[in-house]
Amino acid sequence: MKSNHFYAMLSRMKYINRWGLMRNTREENLSEHSLEVAFIAHALGVINNEIFGGTINAERLAILAMYHDVTEIITGDMPTPVKYYSPVIRNAYKEVEHVAKDEILTGLPLNLRKVYEPLLLETSKEEELWAYVKAADKISAYIKCIEEINTGNLDFSKAKESTYQAILKLDLKEANYFLEEYIPAYSLTLDESKNEEEDNN
């Protein structure tokens, strides 16, 4: 019997929790994180096209973002301080990611693998698009920090600041625009959001 386990493996993303070294008031799993990154990556593409007159494929950004952490189904979520602790660890982790990618792709017939392989790890062919996915990933992490701090969890204070600086360091005008225009709303309550919406009408 064929072992077509690729899509079944994807469904396991909901069992992989993020932020393993941090105290969380609400756990975040890989599945919901990937959807949020897809929303944000798509938004960055739309901002590029509609605000800055670019021609980026926003839909492709959304798809790359959906799959950007799929290898973590096998590797688990490696905390950033550990992943970047030293070049040796980072390079070793990259090798593990490649092995995980190959293992996940074995769950597809050969004629489908070519479609999914460029989605699971960054490629030089789509280097520009992956830069936007990376920005979206960091913005998602920044939003998580905001949400945790809003509940009184100060464990995320340093992570919030370092993540913000990491986003600025990317020097991506679309990411900076998103921070300025849309991030403030993440600190509003639902009632405050409704009132602001009414004021704008």
From TrEMBL:
<dbReference type="InterPro" id="IPR039356">
    <property type="entry name" value="YfbR/HDDC2"/>
</dbReference>
<protein>
    <submittedName>
        <fullName>5'-deoxynucleotidase</fullName>
    </submittedName>
</protein>
<feature type="domain" description="HD/PDEase">
    <location>
        <begin position="26"/>
        <end position="151"/>
    </location>
</feature>
<dbReference type="GO" id="GO:0002953">
    <property type="term" value="F:5'-deoxynucleotidase activity"/>
</dbReference>
<dbReference type="Pfam" id="PF12917">
    <property type="entry name" value="YfbR-like"/>
</dbReference>
<dbReference type="GO" id="GO:0005737">
    <property type="term" value="C:cytoplasm"/>
</dbReference>
<dbReference type="InterPro" id="IPR003607">
    <property type="entry name" value="HD/PDEase_dom"/>
</dbReference>
<keyword id="KW-0378">Hydrolase</keyword>
